[in-house]
Amino acid sequence: MASDKKIAQKGSKPKARLPRGFRDRSGAEIAAERRLIETIRGVYESYGFLPLETPTFEYTDALGKFLPDVDRPNEGVFSLKDDDEQWMSLRYDLTAPLARYVAENFQNLPKPFRRYQTGLVYRNEKPGPGRYREFTQFDADTVGSNSPAADAELLMMVCDALEALGLKRGEYVVKINSRGILDGVLDAVGLPVEERERRGIAMRAIDKLDRLGVHGVNALLGEGRKDESGDYTKGAQLSDEAAAKILRFLEIGGVQGDFRPVLREIVGEDAKANAAIDQLFEIVRFCRENGYGEDQIAPDTSIIRGLDYYTGPVFEAQLTFKVKNEDGQEVVFGSVAGGGRYDDLVARFTGQQVPATGISIGVSRLLAALTSRGLVGEVKPLVIVLAMGDTVSSFRLAKELRAAGIRAETYVGTKKIPDQLKYADKRDAALVVMEGDDERAQGVVTIKDLKLGAELSKSVESRAEWVGARAAQETVKREDMVAKVLSMLGQ
């Protein structure tokens, strides 16, 4: 009987595993991300933007894009019911929560309201290589201004942030288009706003041009497409002629100088589309007159953005240099940020249109790009004070090092010195500080350079030679410890 109980308990142990589409992250990556975020934060605050935090959960109907349905309440988002039977969902971006916040606090906010926010967002979508269900975004938004200057400011600010992170001109470009222009094209091919479902399919298809190419997008504009895994995506059911007209508009691509005549030829007499062209021209003109050239901010008709709530200009920051993909092939890194104008989002709550524009940086993608360019920076070197004899004294030594701006920890595990040195190696420590009873009595400490010691151990051929090569280890007076550690760290 007791044996059966033990087996049952053993069988009930959970398996240590990650949910699909999620990942653990190491301390080094987190530290690098923190530095990236702080750099962007500094640029955004220099423009006068202030932080805002909203909850990770929102009521699902407040998110707007993925509402629960009878068959699958979790479609697109991760959802649950709270204790009063209300559906709540993990936020899928930081913009929909902002719209809820503005609607709830509208009377008390300055107009325009300018905020930045960084945080995790969640997508209940099919995961794949490099495509996770949880990731970090960094947003900046201006709510309450319909001026093209508000859009232009975001574009210039993102350029400044990318350069503050170490990227040079020519390594990035912020592309801009307008959904208002595309709306005119979609209306002309029989996809007015009332055709919500088919129009949404077409918009999401167009947004995948860089990934699927012309052939893949053409299939999604028509009957549909089966991907490499065998999954079938329903198309927008457009005729070949209608799909071809959309593709002709997208293939105009980048336009320079006064692009208005080229775009007016496409949209014809459509008043709203022509107004969108003028608005786009004003945004670009504002950027040019503030010193941002075509190599930094460039109009491009292929930029669409897939979310349904965009109503006007849309932007996408792309990195132009090549990196190696998982198959070892060189590919252009691509998009690291996107956004646009969403003048109708707050109106879902208030019934009153409130102009708004924003841009969101994909922090994980940008971090990967900076890592590939060697622009991440290094964590401060670590010094470990070994536990030898009086541990209280070891803590005092570490405290003195930290007071001098040195990253230091006191070892708190086993007293065995070989185990402590192994720990220091695994922690990739630069130095260890040792103060045993004898050193303490003499008023000295011994400092060992682990990096130099590792290099010397590769070159010496005998123990005698190793003992003679004492440059990797020095004993100094207790009061000289901080100065010596700084010197050995090159600080």
Automatic annotation (TrEMBL):
The keyword 4Fe-4S does not apply. Homodimer. InterPro entries: aa-tRNA-synth_II, aa-tRNA-synth_II/BPL/LPL, Anticodon-bd, Anticodon-bd_dom_sf, His-tRNA-ligase, HisRS-like_core, HisRS/HisZ, HisRS_anticodon. Pfam families: HGTP_anticodon, tRNA-synt_His. GO terms for cellular component: cytoplasm. Belongs to the class-II aminoacyl-tRNA synthetase family. It comes from Rhizomicrobium palustre. The keyword Ligase applies. This is Histidine--tRNA ligase. It is found in: Cytoplasm. The lineage of its organism: Bacteria, Pseudomonadati, Pseudomonadota, Alphaproteobacteria, Micropepsales. Keywords: Aminoacyl-tRNA synthetase, ATP-binding, Cytoplasm, Ligase, Nucleotide-binding, Protein biosynthesis. GO terms for biological process: histidyl-tRNA aminoacylation. The gene is hisS.
